[in-house]
Amino acid sequence: MAVFRDVDKALFPIKHISAVVKLFTNQLDGSTEPDLTLLSIVTGLIENQLTSRSNTGQLSDTPETNVLPRFELETVESLYKKFHFTITSFIEPNKTKSYASRDIVKRVSDVIWNSLTRSYYKDRAHLQSLYSYLTGSKLDCFGVAFAVVAGCQVLGYDDVHLALSEDHAWVVFGPNGSETAEVTWHGKGNEDKRGQEIGKGVSARSWLYVNNRPVVCTRQMEVAALVSAINPSLNSNVDATEVALLQQELLWLLYDLGHLKKYPMAIGNLGDLEEISPKRPELSCSTLFEEAIESARRYYNNQHVYPYTYQGGYYFRNKMYKEAFESWANASDVIRLYNYSRDDEEIYKEFLEIANEHIPYIMKIESSGFEANTILKKPECFANLLRFYDGICQWEEGSATPVLHIGWAKPLVNTISKFDADVRAQVNIVCDTLEDKLKKNGSIFNNNNNNNYEKESNTALSKSVKDQSTSNFHPTIEALTAACSEKI
Ligand SMILES: FC(F)(F)Cc1cc2c(N3CCN(c4nnc(C(F)(F)F)s4)CC3)ncnc2s1
């Protein structure tokens, strides 16, 4: 069995974060494939020891934060052997160096699936690593997919890779990763689709499958995924500083090696950590959020929402409200081309919180004080808000499941009415006539497949609000702005 290389064994017993960074550096030096099983056990062991109630007292009094409790090689080795035995006792290794088959992938998924604890709280923290699987027989949705890929690596199927959307994970395999397979569950109360191909049904247009633009991982990006999945939370208010520091150091290592280039969420995670405790002043967290957006635009056809909500959240926390509106409007421009489905709850909650918590909070602040430079006087803020709401309306259009309900309307109208008439008047809303739309989008009769022609229509509002740009507002937004202008 592939035991550990001497250069890695020499780092044990691990007592310091720098030893873990060294282990990852060795594993990522390009001499062999990084060992997903080894790295997931080590990070899981550290995370679980430092975030479980048992030893919160021990470490907090050490002066420097990088000290860890001793992690022995034997502990890691015995867990490694246990995983190796679990997988190879059910499935024969790939002696012929062939591609994995759907049957093999499904059987590895079954080994993991059938060895999990019968029923447990799936959304709990710290259930993402092989340490959790091997010591507690518990994994979360991401953890099952990761374990399947690690299991296939143990068997010698190096064509099986992790594919990641913003809220789901599956695997690709075969020549050029041309085959896809579900290997884990998603959400609550949904029948799992393990073994099936990805996104053939109505789910094809749902955000959950990001219009078939997932992050398809290399082995090194799978290491980035396990590092991103490290969860430093001790409880909902406190993080274990050593775990957060370890995650940040490992993300910088992966960033410097170029393994985050095509992984927007990992760059966003690093941006969040840098905002809390900057390690690289020359690379500000706002630059990292911009890089995440650039990556999503360049490699994923701008079909991902989170890069914009990472950036919007940063601006909001730092009271940069005008910039936050622009990020959120850009996030909305992504979601407008999707059809909302029941699997998209996570992103629905994200937009709901922005529309019904963050924006009303900003309106309250901006309209209470004597803010000389208030955003209520800025037409581009009004324009970006309309673009934000318009995207959500268009998201709903042609979807089987409604998005908006009365709870959305009150904050929406409240927000729009906070802008003075003269400010609103500066936003040119020139709507196409129907024949213009026909010319631009082809026959209206092809919209029987749930308004696809509306899905293609581009809202030109993103252009400067001053020029005579045309825009295709959703009727709701058009009516609302018309109602406002009547009030002038
Ligand atoms: F595999 C699944 F199913 F878990 C889907 C994935 C999620 C995720 C992630 N996340 C999810 C999004 N996430 C966000 N944190 N803040 C976010 C924002 F709202 F501020 F944008 S989004 C935390 C990290 N970070 C790295 N990789 C992945 S792969």
Structure, explained:
There is one protein chain. The longest helix has 24 residues, at 345-368. Helix 2 runs parallel beside helix 10, helix 3 crosses helix 5 and helix 15 packs parallel to helix 17. A 4-stranded antiparallel β-sheet has the order 5-4-3-6. A two-stranded antiparallel sheet has the order 1-2. The protein is 51% helix and 5% strand. The model is unreliable at 443-454 and 456-470 (pLDDT under 50). It has 488 residues and is mostly helical. The protein is globular. The protein has helices spanning 6-9, 17-27, 36-51, 56-60, 73-88, 102-114, 130-136, 141-155, 219-228, 241-256, 264-276, 285-299, 306-317, 321-335, 345-368, 379-396, 406-416, 421-425, 434-441, 452-456, 475-486, and strands at 14-16, 67-71, 161-164, 169-173, 179-181, 215-216. The chain has 21 helices and 6 strands. Bound molecules: the ligand FC(F)(F)Cc1cc2c(N3CCN(c4nnc(C(F)(F)F)s4)CC3)ncnc2s1. The site of ligand 59V has 16 residues, from helix 8, helix 9, helix 11 and helix 13.
Outline of this structure?
With 488 residues, the chain is mainly alpha-helical. The protein is built from 21 helices and six strands.
SSE layout and pairing:
Layout (H helix, E strand, L loop, with lengths): L5 H4 L4 E3 H11 L8 H16 L4 H5 L6 E5 L1 H16 L13 H13 L15 H7 L4 H15 L5 E4 L4 E5 L5 E3 L33 E2 L2 H10 L12 H16 L7 H13 L8 H15 L6 H12 L3 H15 L9 H24 L10 H18 L9 H11 L4 H5 L8 H8 L10 H5 L18 H12 L2
Antiparallel strand pairs: 1-2, 3-4, 3-6, 4-5
Helix pairs in contact: 2-10, 3-5, 3-9, 6-8, 9-10, 10-11, 11-12, 11-13, 12-13, 13-14, 14-15, 14-16, 15-17
